[in-house]
Amino acid sequence: MADDATPPDPGGPGEPRPFVHAPVMVDLVVDLLRDVPDGLYVDATLGGGSHAEAVLDAHPGLRLLGLDRDDAAIAAATRRLARFGDRVHIVRTGFDQLEQVVTEHLETADPSHTRPGHTRPGHTRPGGATAVLFDLGVSSPQLDEDERGFSYRSGAPLDMRMDRRQAFSAVDVVNEYSFPQLARVIETYGEERFAGRIARAIVDARPIQNTAHLAEVVRAAIPAAARRTGGHPAKRTFQAIRIEVNRELDQLAEALEGAMAVLAPGGRMVVMSYHSLEDRMVKQTFRDAETGGCTCPPGLPCVCGAEPTVRLLKRGAWKATDDEIAANRRAESVRIRAVERIPESA
Ligand SMILES: C[S@@+](CC[C@H](N)C(=O)[O-])C[C@H]1O[C@@H](n2cnc3c(N)ncnc32)[C@H](O)[C@@H]1O
Fold it and tell me: Between the CA of residue 7 and those of 21, 48, 77, what are the distances in Å?
C-alpha cells in the first residue's frame, strides 16, 4: 500500500510507538468533502491518517492517494488505513511534488488517462482529483517526540526535519546562517518583533548545542517585560526555524498550484492553515482562481476575458468555535478555506 521507503516502525524493535494526533475540525472537513464526485481523494498531509479515515468512511466512492514526507506519519497512516485495502495508496513525498505524483498515479490506475483536469476527446469522464485536503504544519508526534528537535521544552539535538532523508536541519540554520539571514527568518516566519536581538544573541552564543540551549538564548534575548506575555518566549523563533528548515512556504506555493492543476470539475479543495503567511497564500491562490486573474476595476463588469475556474465555498475562512478549541488546542489558530472547481461547461 505504501510506496518506497516505508520505514520500519519508528518505535524500534517490538511495538511501534503510538502516533497520537487529535485531528482538527474533522466534522467540517467531512461535510465539505461528503458530496464530491466519486474518484480520487488526495490527502496532501496525511499525518496519522485521521482525517483520511473519516473521509473514506463518509464517502465510499473515493479512493485515497495519501502523501506525507515524514516516515513516522507514513508508518502510522499505513497501519490506520490498512482496513481500506486497495482503496488506499500512500506515497512518501513532499507535497510540492503533488501534481507529478497524482498524474503518475492516475496513469498507472488508468493508462489511457491523459492530463488531470482535462477531458480526452471522445471521453466524458474527466481525470484529476475530486477531493484535495491540506492540513498544514506539524503533527503532535513531531512536536512531542523529543529527539525530533521541534520542541523548546527539551534538550534534544537541533533537528526539526519533517523528512529525515534531508541533510539540511536546524543545526545549519542556528549555527551557520549569517546574522541578517537569521534575523530575516525569525522576523518573517516567526513574526517576532525582537528578531534582531534574538539573531544577535544566537550568533554570539555559537555553537548552540541543543534545543534547550537555543530556548534559553532566545529567552534571555527578549526583554523581561515582554517575556511575560504570549506563551513561551522561544515559541515564535522555533516556529520560524522549523518553517525555514522544511521550506514550508515554498513547498506550499508549488503544492497549491499543482493541486489547482489536478482538481477535477466538481472537485473540492480544502486547506487548513495555522499561520497567517500560509493562510494569506491560500487566500490569494483561491481569489486568483475565483476571478480567473481578472484585472478589471472592482464593481465593474469584467471585460478582460478572465475565466473563473473555481467558486469559493465560503467568502472568508472557517474558524474553530470555543468548544472546538476547548476540545483541541491546535484548533485555536486554524483557518479553513475551500473551493469547488467549476465544471468546464459552466
Ligand atoms: C497537521 S499534520 C496532518 C494530520 C492529519 N490531517 C491527520 O489527520 O493525522 C501535518 C502533516 O503534514 C506533513 N507535511 C507538512 N508539510 C509537508 C510537505 N511539504 N510535504 C509533505 N508532507 C508535509 C507533516 O509531516 C505532517 O505529518
Answer: 19, 14, 12
For residues 210 and 158, give the distance between their C-alpha atoms in angstroms, rounded to a whole number.
5
Q: Which domains, ranges and CATH numbers included, belong to the chain?
A: 2-140+249-341 (3.40.50.150), 165-245 (1.10.150.170)
Ligand 1 atom index nearest CA of 70:
25
CB of 171 within 8 A of CB of 206?
no
Contacts of 52 (CB under 8 A, 6+ apart): 41, 43, 46, 64, 66, 77, 81, 88, 133
Atom of ligand 1 nearest to the CA of 23: 8
The atom of ligand 1 lying closest to the CA of 21 is 9
Q: ∠142-144-150 over CA atoms, to 5°?
A: 55
Cα(64)–Cα(267) distance, integer angstroms: 14
Mutation probe of ligand 1 site: the residue of 92, 139, 164, 328 with most atoms within 8 A of C-beta: 139
| pLDDT tens, position by position, 290-340 | 999 888 888 888 889 899 999 999 999 999 999 999 999 999 999 999 999
What are the tens digits of pLDDT across the range 160-215? 999 999 999 999 999 999 999 999 999 999 999 999 999 999 999 999 989 999 99
